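My main concern about presentation is that the manuscript never shows what a single data entry looks like. An entry of this sort, consisting of the sequence and the corresponding backbone structure tokens, reads as follows:
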Amino acid sequence: MATIISSEIIEAIKYLDGNPHPFGWQGFIGDAVYRSLGLVLVDGRMPAVCVILGAAPDSKIATGIIRELQSKNILTLLAGKSNGVTFKSQLEENKVSLGLESYVVALGTETTSLIYAVNFVSRVALSFGGVKKGDVSGLLKYIKERIPVFVIALGELDSLKVSALAAIIKLGLPVVTDQDAWEIEECDTTIHEALVTVDDYTNIVSKAIEMRGIKIKVDKIDIPVNYSAAFEGERIRKENMHVEFGGGRSISFEYVRSRKMDEIKDGEIKLIGKDIDEIQEGNVCPLGIIVDVAGRSMEDDFEPVLERQIHRFLNYAMGVFHIGQRDMNWIRISKDAKNAGLNFKHFGKILHAKFHNEYSSIVDKVTVTLLTSVEEINKILPEVRDSYKKRDERLKNMKDDTVDTFYSCLLCTSFAPNHVCVITPERMGLCGAISWLDAKASFEISPTGGNRPIERKDCVDAAKGMWNGINEFVYSNSNKMIEKLSLYSLMDSPMSSCGCFECVVAVIPEANGVIIVNREYPDMTPIGMKFTTLAGSVGGGQQTPGFMGIAKKYITSQRFISAEGGLKRVVWMPKALKDTIRPELEERAKEIGEPGLVDKIADETICIEVSELLDFLQKVKHPALSLEPLI
């Protein structure tokens, strides 16, 4: 601290001759400037202040560092020099504008000029934090908790710089240097590490931001189309479409995975394959969206929570339509959006900005990779699907009766304003992307978000899964359109549906059972409707007894339409769906005492006419025929 005090004396003496600094150097930060900067710093409008001591190896590196800081709206204060060169002169060499309006202020040419930054920080604490003179512990506490300032020390560190930086750390400001230094872990005055060496200049700013615990928000997303929640419910008809992905017509997936902080570079966006403007109009193409996220508070359990937000974030862009999730999504891009210049780089910008803005409590870095190359998609698809499977397996041993709280999902209210999804341990969201654990984690991250707790209280009918607590929540959040909900029944007040369901369950009275049709199946069914027609009659937030949108995983749940007999009611489903979930179907069939049930369920290779279906069911003695009448 003696170095800092001595620096203040030295710099103060310079003012005695009336010319303390050369032209273009700020020196002491005057009261008017300090008050305006201090206010926007403590209220969050300015995310941080960076103090650069010394100079970069060359002007190109200096410019790269300052441009990254400017892009994040971080004010930079320059002090000192290295080998006679100042950071200011390096910027001027590349014609970079300096001044308060450019968020770059040069304090002074000497190491002692650091005192002006220290003075600024201390005055902010005194003026805006109510810290009293002489209250050292209060000063340090306020700096640590409320003043986001960090130091980047570039170039050779002499004894004076080392001593000054030690005082800086004592004040609670972390230091990143490009020199070999004795790294210091978290200390009493810092949030994370106190001193770290970074020799990659492209990562030096992001490391400093991470060490100080600063959360960067992007005020405006630089894309060529309007971006607003008002466009979330926008539909794009085929005649207005430039290109589409997924929807059962091609492979398309979205995948969020957590990474270590040093594994990714924030803001990096990569495209492997053709861009939007390189795809012929009207084509159906494959697409993979991979979002890598890193953060000190990030957990693997948060991956599906963030992943489900891709649906909302992309839908906010005018001219982009998105429904579904995981490897079951469906995306369309309009001709107008393509003509406006929208490309996949803009998808990356949207996701990068929105994850930072809405999930800053757990997200520090975001990178986005977009794949339109079939070869690249096929390479990573096994990893993606294995991750989905592992997420689902976490819930295997949890039951509805073992918890007191269920969760809502209100993410799709733009498409279906009256729809409320109720998620339980044994019934995941109908989109197949949000489990009870995911919803619980989502609420912990964002208590005011779409996943909210619903108390399971005042049982009305245990067999049908009806509770007054759930009815009250659904009624108040469905625009008072749905008065009651049975979680385990298809025929009495079933759950409503939005448009993101993986499958439709539909009653077929002639067979005293139900059929299940998945989104990928394009052909006719025994009830005379294709999936698209069924989806139109079920979706939009409607509560339709006998029809319901569900997730694939719900088919093998013990709670699957258990009020009507459960899996024994299933008489027909597409072969591809049956084959996909056959192991789980066979396991569940054994549990209910029907080990041969899976082969008694018809598919399109056996029949698509009702008469043929009845003949088959009688031939194999399907248990649905002996159950109580559904209607």
In short: The chain has three domains: 2-212, 229-378, 400-626. The radius of gyration is 30 Å. The domain at 229-378 is CATH 3.30.1650.10 (Bifunctional carbon monoxide dehydrogenase/acetyl-coa synthase(codh/acs), Chain M, domain 3).
